[in-house]
Specification:
The protein is α+β, with helices and mostly antiparallel strands. The protein contains 19 helices and 17 strands.
Length: about 650
């Protein structure tokens, strides 16, 4: 049954990823300046979620947008370079450089002077686009500019259509993937954070007080329940409006771009440290009393408006406890971009609102609540330690972007060991903070939590010497960003894996650093070797400029289980669809997707192979095949979940056996 479920899951993933995508449409127009001077205007209409790279990209970065204008008949002269809009500029942590890109719509203008009359000017634009989970190979599109007497003549230039026989049923628009998965994660984290906020001194005592108010002021029990439910809904509305405001002010795309911005990460590191110190008792973050007084006066109006202002009063009064948690959630969800801040605030407020509605419906439950006391402050302090630990994730991201190597993996782990070690001592009563009550004994719950934290602290210690620490793999810098990328005392000689298993590398193979995965970059060579050693082939359709391909290689492939399969159980063939090296003359053929055009580059050859054979043109894209070149399992694309990716690999290898 388990295998059936896994098979169905990957079948679904296969259909999601097996799509031939065309996210950019081009249109052209001409602006007449004078009888001889014109502006050739090219406009890219970019689907939501995708971005198009600028014309100016540093060496080693993504493929830039490039325009070529056909002047073989010498009908015109080009004045300067093609101009483009402002776009967005971000510091990319993968390419380690500033990269400019466009979203929504981008306009490019080339000024020319006619030397003799002509009706049409032809051109070509080569470009590359990516979204949050995949990139498409470089694409060339023909442009046509119709010159005439009108102020502006517009012509739509569509991408060339893929033949119908290559589309089949796999081009259903089932656009799910990692985005929805990330939003669910944000929701559950926010929901749990809301329950944590309930257990703070500012919120917990409000539950019996507020519920008692509604039940006593309402004429009937039903009316009390109704008012408490409205109160809970008002709490949700207030926090969701906050998330909506964050998204609306910054914009979904800007939030996503901020995730790799150095100043964003540094500022929020400082902000989270301030929140942490507040929870630890150094000071309290409070809103002006005048705000609370004004809102409280509105709560006396009664009716729906009064209930809403009562909810707003709760949010303001409890801000010293909920503010740091809400701020942390907004920071984390903002780094995800899109609607994540709204989803996060919904999950948080739902957890806050539920107890008020439930205890109003069943007031007898109030007797079962524990009494307020010093344990509420303990909850605040624990949250303070957690916020302090999370702060260093943002500082680490800034260090990675700048490649300063100040907060390398060992330093990050050492800081976390110190933070969680101090938390363990606090829970055992060895450390006391300003607002703590005298501790005469340790409760069983506090002792249990202390033991868990101490165990976690001890678990992290081997990470100082190169242990992978899979439980927290998403937080510290990657293994290669450390003083000892291969682990302290590790020697590559005799370390096993591909190189050791096969002795000298076979012709056409090379080792991918730092994990020494043997790979081929030619389809036929790799397939021949797989037949020789009796192993299945894993095709890795990738790109030098594919951000998410690097994320998979840096975050998923190093997992010990995944790495073992890639090294020992399959033959890896990495096919770079943006490889701009020219094909040998005997390999140059006519494109099957674009009749009349020839395949000139190696990357075009691999891109066409992927599109025709697997009905997909996005990267990363992984396929496991047998020696007859038949699929052993449905292909997958960007799959950052390590267990899912490992299960997919195991399914393919098992089917080969």
């Amino acid at each position: 049954m388990k295998k059936l479920i896994i098979a169905l899951a990957f079948l679904t993933l296969g259909f999601v990823n097996a799509q031939i995508l065309d996210p950019v449409k081009w249109s052209t127009s001409v602006e007449k300046i004078s009888d001889t001077e014109y502006n050739l205007i090219s406009t890219a209409h970019i689907d939501a979620g995708w971005h198009l790279y600028s014309q100016t990209v540093p060496d080693g970065g993504p493929i830039p947008t490039t325009f070529i204008y056909d002047n073989s008949e010498e009908n015109f002269t080009i004045n300067g370079n093609t101009k483009e809009g402002e776009g967005h500029t971000v510091q990319d942590p993968v390419f380690e450089m500033e990269i400019k890109f466009f979203e929504g719509e981008a306009t490019f203008v080339q000024n020319i002077n006619l030397s003799q009359a002509t009706a049409t000017i032809n051109g070509i634009v080569e470009f590359m686009v990516c979204d949050d989970t995949r990139c498409l190979p470089p694409t060339e599109i023909d442009l046509e500019f119709q010159l005439g007497d009108k102020k502006a003549l517009a012509t739509e230039t569509k991408s060339e259509v893929i033949p119908a026989e290559t589309l089949e049923k796999s081009i259903d628009k089932t656009e799910k993937s990692a985005t929805s998965k990330g939003l669910w994660s944000i929701f559950f984290i926010a929901f749990l954070s809301g329950f944590a906020a309930l257990l703070t001194p500012c919120v917990f005592p409000m539950i019996p007080m507020t519920v008692s108010f509604f039940t006593k002021q309402s004429k009937t029990k039903a009316a009390g329940i109704k008012n408490a439910i409205i109160y809970g809904i008002s709490i949700i509305v207030i926090y969701v409006l906050l998330g909506t405001a964050v998204t609306g002010i910054f914009g979904a795309s800007a939030l996503n771009a901020l995730a790799t911005n150095v100043w964003f990460n540094v500022i929020f590191f400082i902000l989270l440290v301030v929140f942490a110190f507040s929870f630890l008792g150094a000071f309290e973050i409070v809103l002006p009393n005048s705000w609370a007084n004004k809102v409280d006066s509105q709560a006396d109006r009664g009716g729906l408006v009064g209930i809403f202002f009562m909810a707003l009063a709760l949010a303001i009064v409890s801000f010293s406890c909920t503010g740091p948690i809400v701020g942390t959630l907004l920071v984390e969800s903002a780094s995800k971009g899109g609607s994540a801040p709204i989803i996060g605030m919904f999950g948080f407020s739902l957890a806050i609102a539920l107890p008020f509605a439930l205890f109003a419906a069943f007031p007898g439950w109030l007797n079962s609540l524990p009494k307020s006391g010093g344990w509420l402050n303990t909850v605040k302090v624990v949250l303070g330690f957690l916020e302090l630990a999370l702060a260093f994730k943002f500082l680490s991201q800034a260090d990675l972007v700048l490649q300063l190597h100040i907060l390398e993996r060992e330093v990050f782990i050492a800081i976390w060991i110190a933070i969680f070690g101090a938390l363990a001592f606090y829970l055992f009563g060895k450390i006391q903070l300003p607002h703590d009550s005298p501790l005469t004994h340790i409760s069983v719950g506090r002792l249990s939590l202390g033991l868990i934290v101490l165990s976690f602290t001890i678990y992290m210690i081997p990470g100082l010497w190169g242990a992978p620490l899979n439980l927290i793999s998403a937080f510290p810098p990657p293994l290669e960003y450390s003083e000892s990328p291969y682990g302290v005392g590790f020697s590559k000689l005799g370390s096993g894996g591909s190189a050791a298993a096969h002795g000298d590398l076979p012709e056409g193979a090379h080792l991918l650093a730092p994990h020494d995965i043997m790979a081929f970059n030619d389809y036929d060579t790799g397939l021949a070797y797989a037949k020789k050693v009796g192993k299945p082939v894993m095709l890795d359709f990738t790109g030098w400029a594919c951000v998410n391909c690097r994320k998979m290689e840096q975050n998923v492939w190093p997992d010990p289980g995944v790495l073992n399969i890639l090294k020992n159980d399959v033959v890896l063939i990495s096919l770079y669809v943006d490889d701009k090296r020219e094909l040998e003359p005997e390999e140059v053929t006519e494109s099957q997707l674009k009749p009349g055009k020839q395949l000139k580059y190696i990357g075009q050859k691999w891109s066409e192979l992927q599109t025709i054979k697997y009905k997909s043109n996005s990267q990363p894209f992984y396929v496991i095949i047998d020696h007859n070149e038949d699929k052993l399992v449905e292909p997958v694309g960007y799959l950052p979940d390590v267990p899912d990716y490992k299960a997919w690999l195991e399914e393919g290898v098992e089917n080969f056996k």
